Amino acid sequence: TTFQDGGEEVEDGAVYNVTLKKVQIQQAANKGARWLGGEGDQLPPEHTVRQYETSKIRAIKAGTLEKLVENLLTAFGDADFSYISIFLATYRAFASPRAVLELLLDRFGNLETSSHGEVENPNSLDSSESETVLKAEIASVLRAWLDQCSEDFREPPDYTCLLKLLDYLKNNMPSSDMESRVQNLLKQFQDQEVEAVDGFCSTSSSDLVEGEELEISNPEEFSFFQDHVVAEQLTYMDVMLFKRVVPYHCLGSIWSQRDKKENKNLAPTVRATITQFNAVTKCVVSTILGTRELRIQQRAKIIEKWIHIAHECRILKNFSSLRAIISALQSNSIYRLKTTWMCVSKDILLMYEELSEIFSDHDNYLTSRELLMKEATSKFANLDSSEKENQKKSQKRLQLQKNKGVMQGTVPYLGTFLTDLIMLDTALQDYVEGGLINFEKRRREFEVIAQIKLLQSSCNSYCLIPDQKFIQWFRKQRHLTEEESYKLSREAEVAADTNILSPKSQKSMVKRISTLFLGTDVITPAKEQPPKSSPVGGSSGESTDSASVSSCEFNHSETEDVCVTPVSSPEDPLKKGYDSDKGSIGSDKGSSSSKGPGSSKDPIFYTGLGLDSGSIPTRDSGPGPGSVPRVLPVYNRQSGGSCIIRVSMDGLQASVYKSILITNQDRIPDVTQRALLKHNLEPDAVEDYELVQVISEDKELVFPRDANVFYGMNSHVNFDFILRKKA
Question: What does the UniProt keyword field contain (predicted)?
């Protein structure tokens, strides 16, 4: 079988891509071979005759809404077999269920007046046969709609579309299976609405992720739960929420509109997964910092426990809670606990590095994308050799699961798909020449939606039983605010420095870790300030090679350590960094870029794409154990062709700024656009703003429109910039 591009066909209101499909239908011996008594398959090609059949495949590329709906009935005839699924998964971006249903039933589904059958099959069928064919086509589309997108008809309290459909079926397909199915769906929706009014709705995500939140975690109570039990319960909650995600809620054109006042209830199923993600991350922070009386070794044990839980999530193929835990451990208030991290064992630090590397932003998160697709089609987790060595007990349990035949699904980090869909929505036009709906864009979006659906289907393989004791404990946790977690972090570090480790033992500890991971010795500065040289980052801002930089987490301006933040363990033994422009969800604003820790209201959480509050730091692929550490960008110093600048908005306090990584290739439009995204403003408004560097209280450096920021800036003063709207 071979395919050939057949160009385009243009009709009134539609444009089609045409593909010619050439299929061999017969192979026979030629005349001379038959005279010799040979068989075609036993003779060389020159003695055989092949017969081919060429068929035409038409796939609609763009069209009016009427044409797109009509194509639902003709797609199979055009051999565009995936069209119905693509349309149903994406039409909410350009039409409402009511508009589509009215066209389908009133315009094309009227069995008495519709000419659809006659148009498509002129002079070949009598009226009765034509009506039968049309009825079968309508039934096929409706069946697919109910199978794939039944949530489209959930419109309480009136259920207008469902009642219209039911009325159509009673008149045109009475006593059919379709009619009884629609009646059952209507009753199901009405019953669930009554349950919701009574305060008991089994589909409510709040039962899982919200709660009283009145208590700070008790370390002893938390330690009572076994690592694999915690991972299983987090996975149970994630599975319940992910299976309820309505795929079209993820479309960029819909998700990006959620911040408008009238859309506060838009995409609730996606919001629920984000709320759960943030709840997990905040729970990690509160268990580590919530109790002031903890000794450094106790706090390190809690960190170790969460790393073990993260690994258990990896075994369960739960990438959502896995990323939430890693993000919390990389958050500003946790990573800076350098003396606590020194007490974390070598093997567990290695495990932490491996888990973190899954979410490296290298090549657009290629590692996590490839792993996710690999796991989506496998029955069990595929652990690499180093993970196996680190977790022999976990391997035994995984092998036991395999022996028992217990299959597992895969829970993805939804932010990856949201990013892709927002990028597609931004890059491709909704309409093409002539005002036609660009359906090629919807085909591209469906490629992402199909992956979500595949993973949702895989989640049916999980066999997890809820542990109400853990769920109740999880729900009642009081989450720390950014200010509280930062304050407790500083208190814990000061106490550790003064009461736990002597300078001698502290230096010995740092030397041991740095030698282990980097093959070099370091001396930790006594104060939290950037030293002139140090291959390993200590607390925020301690090193010119600091692993990463984040936006200011708490809007404090008293110390630089709030804003220059390594993301791995303090003292950065793993030497992994992140670009503060990559990998945060930001504050509920649609954005295709990401932010570093603390770039918005919450210190951690979801990535880029503009999910709800919080941020997820991500990590560049950096040197591994024994390699020479590279120079990474830091605030107030240009090194290796890059640096970190801080950008605030004109009219706001100078302490409210966003940290941005720039390189020697970046010009004003690029940096301005990133700054607008960081401040949750429209990135298209680049031309409306100017970027200036603050030289002193009464002096500023204004950049020309296309200037190179790296080379044009004054490197002898603070790298502080203001984004100001042009007069």
Answer: Guanine-nucleotide releasing factor
Write the CA distances from 169 to 101, 188, 619, 669, integer angstroms: 13, 18, 55, 57
Please give the mean pLDDT across all residues of the chain. Answer: 74
Residues 413 and 476 grouped into a single domain: yes
Which token pair is 628? 């020479």
Q: Which residues pair with 634 in a beta bridge?
A: 637
The total number of structural domains in the chain stands at 3
Higher pLDDT residue, 635 or 486? 486
Number of other residues whose CB lies within 10 A of the CB of residue 347: 13
Q: DSSP 3-state helix, strand, coil percentages of the chain (rounded to 5)?
A: 50, 15, 40
How many angstroms separate the CA atoms of 24 and 725, rounded?
66
Residue of 580 and 102 predicted with greater confidence: 102
| Block residue for tokens 């730091």 | 617
Residue 322 lies in a domain: yes
Highest mean pLDDT among 28-37, 235-244, 653-662: 235-244
Q: Which of 647, 540, 650 has its CA nearest to residue 597? A: 540
Backbone angles phi, psi at 664, to 5 degrees: -75, 5
Q: What's the distance, CA 350 to chain centroid?
A: 25
**Which of 450, 470, 488 is at the close of a domain?**
488
**First vs last Cα of the chain: how many Å apart?**
64
CA 408, CA 463: separation in Å to the nearest integer? 8
Of 320, 310, 326, 289, nearest to 616 (Cα)?
A: 326
Interval 429-482: pLDDT, tens: 999 999 999 999 999 999 999 999 999 999 999 999 999 999 999 998 888 988
CB distance 571 to 536 below 8 Å: yes
**Residue 68, domain CATH:** 1.20.870.10
581, 661 contact by CB (below 8 A): yes
Residue with tokens 């506060």: 264
Kind and range of the H or E run holding 21? strand 14-29
Q: Are strands 642-649 and 689-696 parallel, antiparallel or unpaired?
A: unpaired
What is the separation of C-alpha 284 from the centre of its chain, rounded to a whole number of angstroms? 20
Q: Is the Cβ–Cβ distance between 452 and 247 less than 8 Å? A: yes
- Residue 323: pLDDT above 50? yes
Looking at the fold, whether 187 and 240 belong to one and the same domain comes out as: no
Residue 181 has pLDDT above 70, yes or no: yes
Angstrom distance (rounded) from CA 337 to CA 331: 11
Could you report the per-residue pLDDT of 565-593, keeping only the tens digit for each? 333 333 343 333 333 333 333 333 333 33
- Whether residue 157 is preceded by a cis peptide bond, meaning omega within 30 degrees of 0, is yes
- pLDDT digit string, tens, across residues 396-439: 655 655 555 566 889 999 998 998 998 889 888 999 999 999 99
* Residues 6+ positions from 446 with CB-CB distance below 8 Å: 82, 85, 86, 89, 90
For residue 693, the enclosing domain spans 637-725
How many residues in total does the chain contain?
727
CB atoms within 10 A of CB 470: 20
Tally: H helices and E strands in the chain? 28, 10
- Burial of 192 by CB count in 10 Å (0-12 exposed, 13-18 middle, 19+ buried)? middle
Q: Is 18 exposed, middle or buried (0-12, 13-18, 19+ CB in 10 A)?
A: middle
Among residues 625, 551, 597, 120, which one has the least CA distance to residue 354?
625
Distance between CA 518 and CA 511 in Å, rounded? 10
DSSP category for residue 459: G
The secondary structure of 242-294 as a DSSP string is HHT--GGGG-HHHHTTTTSGGGTTSSHHHHHHHHHHHHHHHHHHHHHHS-TT-
